[in-house]
Every structure is written in C-alpha cells, then in structure tokens.
Inverse folding.
C-alpha cells in the first residue's frame, strides 16, 4: 500500500516492510517469503515470533542496521554478515539519514507474557510527513496517550495487535486508536500464532463506527 511518503506491506503476524525513497525497513520479520534486503531491521523483543533468526538472516546484508532490545542481541549476533546492532529501550531515539526512530513502551497490564520490567518496545518511525507507530506486543497502556502528538504533525499510521491472548483484543485496540488518533489504523498479530481474521475485521468495524479510518492489509 502506497501511503504518503512510504509504501507499507503487511507480511503476516506482526511483520511489516516499509519502503521509503532511500531505505527498506523491516519490522519483526517472521515466516516471511519476502527476500528484499533490508537497510534497517527493527525488532521489538526476543520472542521467537518477533526475533526470528532465520528471517533476519534471510533479509540482512552487509551494512544492515538492526535495532533491537538487549535480550534479542544473542540471536542476532549469530548472523555472519557485516551488520550493525543498535540496542534500544523505551524512550531511546536514533536517526539514520532522513529517518528518525523512537522506541516506546510496550507491555502487558495484567498478563504475564510481556512484563514492563523487560523494557521491550514498540517503535515510532518518522519519514518525511509520515509517522508509523508499530505497537509491538502490548496491551492498551497509559503511555499511548502521548502518541497523539504525532497525529498533529504527521500522517500517523498505527499498527496495533488485536489477538486478545498475548495483547489487546479488538475492543482495547479501539481504545488505543481512540487515544492515539491515527490517520489510519491497521490491525496486526492475528491469523498466525494467535488471533483470527475475525478479530481484525471486528477492530476495523469498531473503528469505523467511531469515525476512525482503519483498514485490513492483504498479506504480501
């Protein structure tokens, strides 16, 4: 899908590919068929369906920069190409040419899967007039309200999990979208490990009822 300054593809689960006019960015590649080589790879946390060595190795090349949490580093260190690893935790910002990336909080409130103490992350990616928020694995958390600031300055795309087992369900994802106020909300983390296409469709329907622009992407 071509949106504003970027092209964004859903690769299944929580995996996305973003193409700018200069860079190819992958987020949480998992069981992907895409074999484009990445300039930047963003990993939200170390769980196997987000930090997949096989998928990262497939798309990495000499010069690829991998942005990840500290607990993901041991997997990524096995890659034999000349990569650069940049470690992040919530609130850390990094910049590469005209792309700015901020790591943000991602955690569960009342589930054991993603404790806040792990310092796992989502990402806000700024490119031109477009901002992409990839929530990572998370519930609806208080820190999301601060993301509304991006909607005032950028065309904000919010990629939100909707599976309801390890993350938000469709109703809580609606709360997140309502707080964030994106120009476009896209559901993720379904039709693979947990969650169904019905969960994603329900999220889109709930958003549309509230006047929030939301859309399902076809898996690429």
């Amino acid at each position: 899908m071509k949106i504003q300054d970027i092209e964004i593809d859903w690769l299944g689960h929580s995996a996305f590919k973003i193409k700018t006019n200069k860079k190819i960015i992958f987020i949480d590649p998992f069981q992907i068929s895409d074999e484009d080589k990445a300039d930047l790879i963003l990993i939200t946390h170390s769980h196997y369906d987000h930090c997949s060595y096989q998928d990262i190795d497939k798309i990495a090349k000499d010069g690829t920069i991998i942005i990840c949490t500290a607990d993901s580093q041991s997997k990524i260190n096995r890659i034999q190409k000349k990569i650069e690893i940049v470690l992040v935790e919530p609130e850390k910002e990094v910049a590469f040419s005209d792309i700015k990336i901020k790591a943000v909080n991602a955690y569960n409130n009342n589930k054991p899967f993603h404790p806040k103490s792990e310092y796992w992350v989502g990402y806000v990616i700024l490119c031109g007039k477009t901002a992409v928020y990839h929530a990572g694995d998370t519930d609806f958390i208080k820190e999301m309200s601060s993301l509304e600031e991006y909607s005032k300055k950028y065309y904000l795309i919010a990629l939100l999990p909707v599976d309801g087992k390890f993350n938000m369900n469709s109703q809580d994802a609606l709360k997140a979208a309502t707080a964030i106020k994106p120009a476009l909300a896209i559901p993720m983390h379904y039709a693979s490990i947990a969650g169904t296409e019905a969960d994603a469709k329900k999220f889109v329907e709930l958003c549309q009822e509230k006047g929030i622009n939301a859309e399902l992407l076809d898996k690429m």
